[in-house]
């Protein structure tokens, strides 16, 4: 039985899916962050762990192809990163070839069977891309927390911290401080200066919850994020379907509501991405001779959707 592997390696987690060429999922795995910009060569270790989990009880020799959807593909210009990925692939027992694509490609593939269109992702980071024949031809943002990723989970966390320290002691500031464990403004500033990136991004749900509750500071931050994300998408606007991916745009968040409302006002009906790891597995199957990818898309994506939205 021929198998294919799909991986979605992002700033929060790495997910792997093993499936038959016909789209039956036979294994899943999840491990730590797989974005090499954030984690360096160690990202390959998380990807390997996810692969090993997904392959448990199966013969890696039956895997005939794989696609790795990677956040931070620009890091692959570093030979140490590519070598670490190759070593991790082999360490999982895999001998078949694999292809590295941007996570925008796999998120798009998890939302539509069409080969071309546009995708907007807002999770830990944020990026938009024009996709043509399942390849990225243009991108907007995706520049990382220091230089961009506007409207992302990390951006929301940083924006919340700034708002909290400038408005101390507001109810919103108290929410943020409670989540970080800080008991006063100075301790909150000290906490932020240490740049605990994962915990900063984890403040995004606090902002969303506060915005749902009507907090004016949180609502202003959400509105700003929606504006940034729609502007980012506008930079790569093209004909074809628009797919929304990442947890802020696939889960029930005010960010998703705002972006979808903005697009509806333009007469656009965006699609929602399913599991990008399953999308990657579908792409891997479509690379094989004699496979009709269009006929298999719903099978792969429907199975992948059971794993929930991307973190």
> What profile does the largest beta sheet have?
5 strands, mixed
Q: Order of strands across the biggest sheet? A: 3-2-1-4-5
**Cα-atom radius of gyration:** 20 Å
What structural category do the secondary elements indicate?
alpha/beta
Total number of beta strands = 10
Low-pLDDT stretches are 305-311
Top-tier CATH class of the largest domain: Alpha Beta
Percent of residues in β-strands: 15-25%
Count, helices: 15
Compute the separation of the termini in Å.
31 Å
Question: What is the CATH topology of the largest domain?
Answer: Nucleotidyltransferase, domain 5
Oligomer: single chain
CATH homology superfamily of the largest domain: ATPase, nucleotide binding domain
What best-fitting shape do the alpha-carbon axes yield?
Answer: globular
Which sequence of SSEs, written as H and E, runs from N to C?
A: EEEHHEHEHEEEHHHHHHHEHHEHH
